[in-house]
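Comment thread on ticket #2218

A.B. wrote:
> Attaching the input chain for the structure job we discussed in standup.
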Amino acid sequence: MTAPERNRNSDNFCYRHPDRQSFVLCQRCLRTICPECQTQAAVGVICPECLAEQKKAQTPAQRTAERRWARPRAVTASDSRPLVTYAIIGITALAFLVGLIPGVGETVQNTLLFWAPSLYPELTGTFEPWRLLTAALVHAGFWHVGLNMLALWMIGRSLEPLLGHGRFLVLYVLSALGGSVAVALLSFTTPVVGASGAIFGLFGALIVIGRHIGANIAGIAIILVINLVIGFIPGFNVSWQAHVGGLVVGALVGLIYARTRSVRRRMLQVWLLVALGAALLALLLVPPLVFF
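C.D. wrote:
> Ran it. Output below, let me know if you need it in another format.
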C-alpha cells in the first residue's frame, strides 16, 4: 500500500479522532485508537467505550480489588531518605556547638531550656512558651547529645521512610511537647534540657506501629524498658517525667497513624493530631490550680 492509499484509508485513523493517524487497535472491538484513547489492559490496550463496558461488567469484589491495588503508596523511592532526621540532628548539633562558645553558650542554654514557671506570667512576670519545644535542642554534655542523636538516627532511618517526612516531624514535635507537659505536671520547678522526651516518643510510636503491621518488636521493647527504668534509678539525674510524657504521647500518635493510614481517613488523622496537641496545651492549665 502506498502512502497516499494509507492516508485515505479511514481504518488508519482513530475512530474517535479522525484527524489522528494511528496503527494501534483496541483489543476488544479492533477499532483504531490514538494514544489519547488508549488504556492499558491485561492483554493490550482498549478504547474508552470498551473500558466503560468492562467496568459495568465488574463484580463488587473486582471493583474493590481494583481500588485497593490502584491506591497510591505513601512511601516511594524518593521518600526513602530520612531527611527530617538528618535536619533535626544537624540543628541540635548546631545548638550544642553554639552552647560551647564562652559567654554565649550559657545564655543560649538558659534561654532554650524548659522551666515550667516561665509559662506563667503571674509567677515570673514573663511568658516564654517556646521553651516547651526548644528544650529538645539543648543538652547537658557531649554524651547526652551524642546518645540522643544516635538513638534518633537509628530510629529515624526506619520510622521516617515508613511515615513520610511530615508525619515523622509531627511525631517528633508532639513527643517533645508531651515530655515538657509531663515535667510541668509532675516536676514543676525542675529545669530540663534534652531531646529524651522526643526520642522516647519515637520509641513508643515505633512499638505501636510495629505491632499493627505484625513486625517483631521484642528487641525494641526490651531497649525501651531498660532506658525507662534507668530514669528511676537515683543518681542518674535523668528526667523520668519527660521520658514518660514523650513515650505516652508518641504511642498515641503512633496509634493515630496506624488506625487512620487509609487515604479516606486522612482528614480524620489531621484532626486527631490537632486534638492531641490541643489537649496537651490544655493540661498546662492544671499547674496553676495545684502549685499556686
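A.B. wrote:
> Thanks. Noting for the ticket: The longest strand covers residues 39-41.
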